[in-house]
Specification:
The complex is a heterodimer.
Chain A: E1 9-13, H1 17-29, E2 33-38, H2 41-50, E3 55-59, H3 69-79, E4 85-90, H4 95-102, E5 108-112, H5 119-130, E6 135-136, H6 138-145, H7 159-169, H8 174-181, H9 185-199, H10 207-219
Parallel strand pairs in A: 1-2, 1-3, 3-4, 4-5, 5-6
Helix pairs in contact in A: 2-3, 4-10, 7-8, 7-9, 8-9
Chain B: H1 2-8, H2 17-40, H3 45-57, H4 63-66, H5 73-78, H6 82-92, H7 102-125, H8 147-178, H9 181-187, H10 189-209, H11 216-255, H12 260-271, E1 277-282, E2 287-289, E3 307-313, E4 319-326, H13 333-409, H14 413-440, H15 443-448, H16 450-459, E5 465-470, H17 477-498, E6 503-509, E7 513-520, H18 533-543, E8 547-551, E9 558-565
Parallel strand pairs in B: 5-6
Antiparallel strand pairs in B: 1-2, 1-4, 3-4, 6-7, 7-9, 8-9
The chains are: A alpha/beta, B alpha+beta.
């Protein structure tokens, strides 16, 4: 979480100017410093070379190819050893894509573009990735959980456990889950242990690994 | 009759028994050949003439019987060389049964006039005892006693006859010598027979003129020669018929569109003429050239040479080829007609085939272009939506949110709530727009190919679906899109109809084709009927040159197998003529 005295430094990359400006306003309203706002992935990488930032918010689909430039940029950032937070915005919620994005490492987020209209969601996502956490769009999780499976392990979960699982998949920490569901931390921890046991997943101290494991399990069928 | 004539002839005037037998056999041979000729010849004339020969052969042997009948013997006596005239005509009309050339018509004309003059002379001038006839009754038609004139006409007629016979024999011999090996093999009997006969006839005529008794040996040879004429006629005609049967074989061989080399070879075999050459019309150069491209030699068009050329053209008059063949084959126009028909048919077949192949290729290409254009349009619309409407709606939602926040800050919660409601509506609209754009062209497919898009597609299916994608790298856009829509349609069908509990999707490529199977364990019984989405998918698959196979036995699930070529199919058009 950003220290209130030293604001988070963020760079934005999106080829749609309207959105770029909108995102900038939302972030600045929340006290985040937008050090640069660019239209392509290459420009973003240029900015990152020169300016130290805490996080980058970037569109997946950008010129020149309008395909997966954002993900490629993420992979290059990680390949360069940088651990800054990277939040990818996508017009479509695609689980397979989210899995690929999350696979790039911790401090990564995948969010539907329309979430920028929910300032708290966007700001919290930026803060989460900047602090090394993971963010997965609820719609992606919803799709994954809704997948039909042979011998569905999800069906063995209670209603409450399922809600906890969904938040786990979205990247929430136990504390975050407790806050969202108005539960005690101990209760959440019990639920998490039960869920992991029922799903046959190992407990892990590494928060990102937990997110990946849950997503991977949900991705299976 | 010949027998009764023999018996009524005085014993000392009777010829030898063997000669008499032979003499009686000649008309039998003619009669038999007439029957065969009637059956196999194109024209009825040879058979008719052979029958006429049989009738006209009789008078020679029955003088002894009719010598006492005054009104009859002069008529018979006037016609007693008719068989020779008929024999000459039979030879001339060989093999087609018609008189072809002016020479032939002249010969027949002269023979007819001479025969008429002779008949008149016999009727009006002959007395009993003149010539061969040992007749006793007086000639009732006789108008004058001019024994010198009668003798002159009688001998002259025979000399003209011998002359004509010799002319025919020589002509035939010439024709035969100029002919090719194939024609000679059978037709050699005819000129030989005629020559033998003409020679003996000459000898007989000389001895007749000298009033000497003819030599028995010569007479026997003459009979054999005469009898061999209808035999060689029939043999020649049946040989030609065999050739026609071989044309049928030629048709069969070349129907499938033979190449040019094989054509010349088959033709030579059919016509039994190794000298046959086929020259194909070369549209570019405007010349006829053989299969290896060598143009036709100038001299080959010479109408006087031993070779003759047969032009073959399409029904519209477009030249196809020249067949250079032995001149003697022109005797058999039907055969050549058959050959040129076979050639025309073969070329037409080849031409049609290549035309159909060309048209098919065009249709295939244009089908593919239509699909490509459709895909491009979908992609463009999706991109326009993504970069335009969707982005604008998102930023609009964002601004509305700020408006709502500001309204709340300024103590206008009612307005803020209203704006929040608008935002919810806007989000719903955005979601719908997103799904529309996704359906138009899955952006994931464009971005990640089948290995990303197929699992995503499977994830949306209500039935548990196992996906295996074994495809290295990206495939051509058209193939990826087609495979994607196949799977989408198949899964939609599974959702709707199959009642399955499990689906398996398998996509693999070997670099040359993408093999895609979608299998379920449902009720089966699906069909490629009109109205089902699979038919639309089939169209698409075929447009990119692929195949779709549906196996759906009732109770055994449904398997759709699609193969899509990754490289442009090699055009396996067989070699064609023309």
């Amino acid at each position: 979480m950003g220290d209130s005295t030293t604001p988070l430094r963020v760079v934005i990359a999106d080829d749609a100017m309207l959105l770029r400006e909108g995102i900038q306003k939302v972030l600045e309203d929340a006290g985040i410093e937008v050090v640069a706002s660019v239209g392509t992935a290459d420009e973003l990488l240029g900015v990152l070379d020169e300016t130290p930032v805490d996080a980058a918010v970037l569109d997946i689909r950008m010129p020149p190819g309008h395909s997966d430039e954002g993900v490629v940029a993420l992979e290059r950032i990680r390949a360069g050893g940088s651990t800054i937070g990277v939040l990818l915005l996508s017009m479509y919620a695609t689980p397979e894509y989210a899995l690929r994005v999350m696979g790039a490492g911790s401090g990564t987020g995948y969010l539907l573009k329309e979430r920028v209209a929910q300032p708290q969601t966007l700001v919290r996502a930026v803060e989460t990735v900047a602090s090394g956490g993971s963010v997965v769009d609820p719609e992606v999780v919803e799709q994954l959980v809704g997948r039909s499976r042979v011998d569905d392990p999800i069906s063995r979960l209670t209603e409450r456990e399922r809600s906890v699982l969904e938040l786990m998949a979205q990247g929430y920490s136990n504390g975050g889950i407790a806050q969202s569901l108005f539960l005690g931390l101990k209760t959440v921890e019990t639920h998490v242990r039960s869920i992991l046991q029922k799903l046959g997943l190992e407990e892990s101290r590494d928060h990102h690994r937990r997110v990946l494991a849950v997503l991977a399990l949900l991705g299976e069928r | 009759m010949a027998i009764s004539g023999y018996w009524s002839t005085p014993a000392e005037a009777r010829p030898e028994t063997s000669y008499a037998t032979l003499h009686a056999l000649v008309p039998l041979v003619f009669a038999a050949c007439a029957g065969v000729a009637w059956a196999i010849s194109e024209s009825r004339w040879p058979a008719r003439l052979m029958v006429a020969f049989v009738v006209l052969w009789i008078p020679q042997s029955i003088y002894a019987v009719i010598g006492g009948v005054g009104w009859l013997w002069p008529v018979v006596r006037g016609l007693d060389l008719g068989w020779a005239v008929v024999t000459g005509i039979i030879v001339l009309i060989y093999p087609r049964g018609v008189l072809r050339e002016r020479f032939d018509r002249w010969v027949v004309g002269i023979a007819a006039v001479a025969s008429a003059v002779n008949l008149l002379a016999v009727l009006l001038l002959a007395a009993p005892g003149d010539g061969v006839c040992a007749c006793s009754a007086p000639n009732p038609y006789r108008v004058a006693a001019l024994p010198e004139l009668f003798a002159a006409i009688d001998v002259g007629y025979r000399i003209i006859g011998v002359g004509l016979a010799l002319a025919i024999a020589v002509r035939l011999l010439f024709r035969w010598m100029r002919g090719s090996v194939p024609a000679r093999t059978v037709a050699f009997l005819m000129p030989l027979a005629l020559l033998a006969w003409a020679t003996t006839l000459t000898a007989q005529a000389v001895s007749y003129a000298a009033e000497a008794r003819s030599d028995q040996m010569l007479a026997t040879i003459s009979l054999i020669a005469i009898a061999s004429i209808p035999v060689s006629f029939v043999a020649g005609v049946s040989h030609a018929r065999n050739m026609r049967a071989r044309v049928a074989d030629l048709m069969r061989i070349t129907r499938e569109g033979a190449d040019r080399g094989l054509w010349a070879e088959s033709l030579a075999r059919t016509l039994r003429d190794a000298s046959v050459r086929v020259y194909w019309w070369d549209e570019e150069r405007g010349v006829y050239a053989d299969a290896s491209g060598t143009p036709i030699p100038k001299g080959d068009a010479d109408p006087r040479g031993s070779q003759s050329v047969l032009p073959v053209a399409s029904p519209l008059g477009v030249p196809i080829a020249l067949i250079r063949h032995d001149r003697v084959l022109t005797d058999n126009m039907r055969l050549l007609d058959g050959v040129s028909s076979a050639l025309r048919l073969s070329v037409d077949n080849g031409r049609l085939r290549s035309e159909i192949e060309r048209t098919l290729a065009h249709v295939r290409e244009s089908r593919q272009r239509i699909v490509e254009a459709g895909d491009a349009a979908r992609r463009r619309i999706e991109r326009d939506l993504h970069d335009g409407a969707q982005q604008q709606l998102v930023s609009l939602a964002m601004r509305l949110r700020r408006t709502s926040d500001q309204a709340r800050d300024r103590g206008m919660p009612a307005i803020a709530d209203e704006v929040d409601a608008e935002i919810l509506l806007l989000n719903a609209a955005l979601k719908e727009l997103r799904e529309l754009a996704q359906g138009l062209h899955p952006s994931l497919l464009a971005q990640g190919g089948l290995s990303l898009a197929l699992p995503e597609l499977a994830g949306r299916c209500s039935v548990p679906t196992e996906v295996r994608v074994d495809v290295a790298g990206r495939l051509p856009e058209l193939v990826e899109a087609t495979a994607y829509f196949v799977v989408a349609e198949a899964l939609a069908n599974v959702d709707k109809h199959a009642g399955a509990t499990r689906v398996w999707i398998d996509a693999s490529s070997d670099g040359r084709e993408l093999r895609l199977t979608v299998r379920d364990n449902g009720a089966g019984g699906a069909r490629l009927d009109a109205g089902t989405g699979i038919v639309g998918v089939l169209d698409r698959v075929e447009a990119v040159g692929g195949t779709l196979e549906l196996v759906s036995e009732s109770g055994h699930g449904t398997t759709i197998t699609v193969r899509l070529p990754l490289v442009d199919g090699v055009d396996g058009a067989p070699p064609t003529l023309g």
